[in-house]
TrEMBL record:
Highest taxon of source: Bacteria
Listed GO biological process terms: lipid catabolic process
Keywords on record: Signal
UniProt-recorded name of the protein: Lipase
InterPro entries membership: AB_hydrolase_fold, Lipase_secreted
Signal peptide range: 1-36
Keyword Lipid metabolism: no
The keyword Signal belongs to this UniProt entry's keyword annotation: yes
Source organism of this protein record: Amycolatopsis thailandensis
A molecular function GO annotation: triacylglycerol lipase activity
Amino acid sequence: MGFSMRFSSRLSLRRALVTSVVTAALLSFVAAPAGADPGFYEPPSPLPPGADGDVLKTLPSKFTGAKSTRVMYLSRDTANRAIPVTGTVLVPDKAWSGPGQRPIVAYAPFTAGMGDQCAPSKALAGEGGDFVSSFQSSFVSALLDKGFAVAQTDYQGLGTPGEHTYVVREAEAHAVLDVLRAAQRLPGAGLSAASPVGVAGYSEGGGASASAVELAPAYAPELDLKGAYVGAAPADKAVLAKSLDGGMYVGFLGYSLIGLNAAYPEAGILDLANDAGKQLFDEARTTCTLDAVFKYMYKNSGQLTKDGRPVSAYLDQEPFRGIVAANRVGTLKPAAPVLVEHTPNDDVIPSSVGRQLGKDWCAKGADVRFQDIPSFSPVFSHVLGITGAQGNAANWLSERFAGKPAVGNCGRF
């Protein structure tokens, strides 16, 4: 058998394996009924005046072991316009036994999808999302088990009207920082402006957490930010435009283009698409994570553009070069100690991206620790890395809230 035939056979086998696993996951998930108040996600029009983080409305939610409240709060998009964002504030049933006031951790969710039904606040309440949503709940539970209150954001455009600005640096940072403000101001939660805060996220959430900790000094200087956990962050979109293309997770590249187009409509990003590309974008806007993976894996972006060039070929020309540069994370010194982690054989976001993020911050004099998340399988290593990340995040933040000094390792990774 020649090399090309052997390669084709291995690729076909891998695709068959992936298809069977993903199909099983999709079939094993049965969505719960829709929420009792679908109108909660419709913002008041016009938006009332207020400060970033002000709570616009609330809705009782449910989560085992915690008082859970859905919130709609004010935040800002990339153009600095006021927008409504939804999320969940969870306060553990057990009393806080640590020093000072109960801390609040902003949980930045990983990729949930682009459709409104995928909003993490719905998934946490058992009302939406897909099989992957169980990982969101697990991460939140790890934080609650430490006694932390958790403030989870849906980001811009998930649940609320408009497109989700997927992996857009400023919009996601604002949503994360403002959900902390919303938690501090939420009546009856027992939290306050004096509550110390932290940030944690993995994958998309890792990028949002990283963006939040480096934009906090300018955007939310009043927050008593003790530390940030950054797992598998998509810090450099130029690298991902190449690494995702044609692979199993190419749907995430489509998500990125939709999100960037929503944030920068003047660039006309989606105008580059041919008819097949436009159809993909229209479909992808309504999908949750597993659906996108299943539908679009192994597609090449060059088949979706008018001139046949892959997405990565456009990134050296304006306005796309400027957009990619503006959304690279690691250009500012973080406001607090940071733990950056990555699975060495990550099959979605190359570990070199996370490692470089840590080095970029070190070069600016930040307090950074980088370490690997142990991986026990080369298949689905990115997704499986979440299980290690959630415990590491909770333990590391617990030490920061206890006043223990962070031990960085700049220059040694």
